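Dear colleague,

Thank you for sharing your sequence with our group. We've completed the structure prediction you requested, and as agreed, I am returning the results in plain text so they can be pasted directly into your records. Please verify that the sequence below matches your submission; if there's any discrepancy, let me know and we will rerun it promptly.
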Amino acid sequence: MLFALLVAWLVFAGLYPWFPGVQRFEVGTVPTVELHAPRDVSYVSDVLTRQRREEAGASVAEVRVFDPAVRARRVADLDRRLERIDVVRRDVTLSAAARESAVRSLGEDVLSERSAAALVAASETQWRAVVEQARAALGRALASPLGSTADVDAQRLQLAGFLPPELGPDLAGATVELASPFVAETVALDRERTATLRAEAMARVEPVEVSVAANDVVVRPGQALTALDIERLDWLGLRSRPLSPSAVLATAAVSALVGACWGGFLFVMRPLGLRRLLHMALAAVMLGVPFAMLRVALPFVLPDGANHYLWSALPIAVVAMTAAVLLDPVSALMVAVTIAVGVGFLATNIPPENGPLLAQDAMRLVLHVAASSIAGLLVAAQTDRVQRFLAAGAAAGLAGACVLLAFWLLNPARTLQDLPWILGASALGGVGSGVLTLAAMVGLSRPFGVITRIRLLELAQLSHPLLRRLQDEAPGTFQHAVLVGNLAERAADRIGANAQLARVGAYYHDVGKLVAPSFFVENVHPDANPHEGLDPVQSTRVIHQHVTAGLELARRAGLPPAVTQFIPEHHGTRLMTFFYRRAAESDPDVDVELFRYPGPRPSSRESALVMIADACEATVRASIDRTEERIRAIVDSVIRERIEEHQFDECDVSMRDLAAVADSFTRSLAAVYHPRVPYPQPTTRELDARRVEALPPPPSARAEAPRSLGVPGTDDA
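Please find the predicted structure tokens below.
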């Protein structure tokens, strides 16, 4: 369940419907691509309708009416100015010149010197006449409709005609100057009536319907988009909307489905490549990260309106091929299907600014990714040298090209110019997948604790420093390890286990004996027994040391965990019976746990094979009777003992597997220890020709069992 949640979360992050770096169409955007209408569409244009209605409303003239209140306001303003002038005229503290200056400065409009002097010098009667005539003239001027600046200017010129001649020229001029600034427009805008008429005019405009035919150009590169263009793109579905909750929910649904499928796959199939937590994490990363990268890359190559097939040059098959190399073929097949589904989902969510993606294009993309990935992983799964990566890439490219050619043949608009693009892009994608798979294998294998076939081939070289030390310092152990490797490899191949890993694990399972090789029977003279001077507990500690020392040597040599696990697991938690029984002879209550290997028990079928092969080879070597029937009995006995001791409880080896292993070991050991026919003595002529004496006759047919310092049939000592 945790693995399913991890996969779902990473896939959701990779498929999240946000495409960075993609041009978004807004008003004023200058597009770089040419877009065509994907279909016929007719719609009511809100933009054009609004424009037509605004034009109809603007064509209605403003309604203006006479406002009698203007006259009262302007006459009141005139009265306030006249009162201020009267105050200045009555101020006897000022000289005549000072009063003239003060009168001129009153108000916004400056009176002329002549008018100011006339007003200051006027008698009280004359001043009253000026006040009355100014108010009367202004009232008459504002009594008629004045709707423009020209009307106001003309009416000001008429003010002098409204004055009686008795005022005289100086006071008449002053009166005109006083009243003239207060003449204003008396016609005001009737906003309510104008708005009503314009609304009626706009309502009479019918909605504007727009029709766009399929393949019409709707966006031209280099031309800034208008509101009308944006509306057309929205109706055609060629413009992405802001991230919507529905898009996020759709992505979450697909991610949850993928996570559930992977959880069920792990639970039901129990693939070999997903046994460790690090391997599960690697599988989850291999799903989420590629989707995130494709989310950035796909908008640049889709849709493929020019039929250049650049999207097929993307090395998408590298994901499944890498899974086949680092995990296992079954998991890689699941990866291929998941990637194909995810790519199809991503393609359908590409921003429509790139152009519409047809359903046929999406199906072609999904089948291309699936075919190229499956073909590539089938070849990459058996990769044991660098050249095979290129072969896997070639297989991926060829499978992808076949899919493209099939769709090309179904396309009625196909042209021969498409073929070079198909072949070139497919070849580029295949080669890129092969090269990137090699790089991914090198970069991901060590961090995630994955051992590859190429790494196993390197470790299987007998020139490896640890194996070279075994040859020089513990030759008997080395020969034993090689034979165990042969037995385990052949049996692993019979039951479908990793034969290469079984061989390499067998090579290194006893490297700990390098610490004290003389304490193990295969490395000493038959007459020497280093355990004679030790008590059973001390001997047990020496024998136990080859496990702990082996782990330390493996760590220093940089052996991967998949190989290191063979060192403690090939003994499991078995009892070192030879030394225990010797100790029990003197002390029946001795602690049995002192003589037990620390384990753990075998966790894989390969470790179980090495455990059985290790014991079978030692037991058969120590046996006097090496007939095939006796070898079969020994092999069956070894397997039965370990079943009864529950040594295989933590690995998935089955009884059917053990039956096949027993048959394989019997045949292999019988072939190794097959009987030989004794050669007769050389003739006299042969001896004369070589001028040597005859050899002593061979001893009678007898076999002497190899001396064992430990339990017969085991490699305890």
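Summary note from our side: DSSP finds 29 helices and six strands in the chain.

Kind regards,
the structure core
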